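Review session, final week

We close the course with one last complete record, chosen because it touches almost every idea we covered. It is Prephenate dehydratase, a protein from Dietzia aurantiaca with 310 residues. Go through it on your own first, then we will talk.
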Amino acid sequence: MVTVAYLGPPGTFTDAALHRFRADARITDPLADARAVPAGSPDEALALVRAGDADYACVPFENSVDGTVNPTSDALAVGDRLQIFAETQIDVVFSILVRPGTTAEDVTVLRTHPVAAAQVRRWVGENLPNARIETTSSTAAGAEEVAAGSADATAAPARAGEINGLVPLAENIADVGGARTRFVLVGRPAPPTPRTGHDRTCVIFGLPHQPNSLVQALTELSIRDIDLTRIGSRPTRVERFTYLFHVDLVGHIDDPMVAEALVALRHRTESLRYLGSWPVADLAEAGSPPPDRADETAWLEGLRRGEGAG
Ligand SMILES: O=C(O)C(=O)Cc1ccccc1
């Protein structure tokens, strides 16, 4: 049976994302009846996959308000290479959940996930006069802590309240409306999901400490008209003040221009980690696909066969 580790416990946004993956017909693996194993962090979920104790991990990847989910990116950057096979998106709105009978004035500790904390801070400041925000491993962990009495409130999906016997003090809370989080399904290296024409590819690379090295690396993408959708740098944590660059680009390793760019990047970088190619969740964000240059490929093949005039 397929096992999927996810940032738990039940009721997290990641749990909701896993339900989406289960229902997604594009995901070929039989996720529908997979066993779900809650983990305490993205790192722990990915470690279960590396150790062979889970086949996949479902983890948050990027938030439209708060940006890259660093604990996930950092865990993907080191250790045995893993690969992203799919993504899904969840609208992020929060319920403020309390034990029955708790009033806004009673809330002195609101405990939730750091990404959630960043998205309700203003609302909490304006509506819970005595509250201090503390962070914990997930929104649903916050809900469990409220149920156990070690915190007074959490900002979490409504379902975390249903699971833990809590009631909403407020619903549909978000400092910035329309926030979404992208979640990814990660497994051990395997052939990527077939090219759909609306794909993303993710790489992480380290650069030699030389003038121009970042520009030269990115030029390999720009000269091939490859569209970037996310770029960031994170400390290597090996050598002080050295960085790894995380790049998402539009296209699939089976797009000739992307394949060529990956080979060129390999020469420009000190380390290059391929994290997979997978279909985008939302076609509205598909970006500009790389040129297919089918004519050039046909021209070259013609020359190799001894054909062609020009
Ligand atoms: O804690 C959760 O529920 C998560 O899945 C992480 C998270 C928290 C806030 C927004 C998106 C993801």
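Two points worth writing down before the exam:
The chain is about 30% helix and 30% strand.
Residues 7, 12-14, 60, 63, 92, 113, 115-116, 138-140, 181 surround 3-phenylpyruvic acid (CB under 6 Å).
Good luck, everyone.
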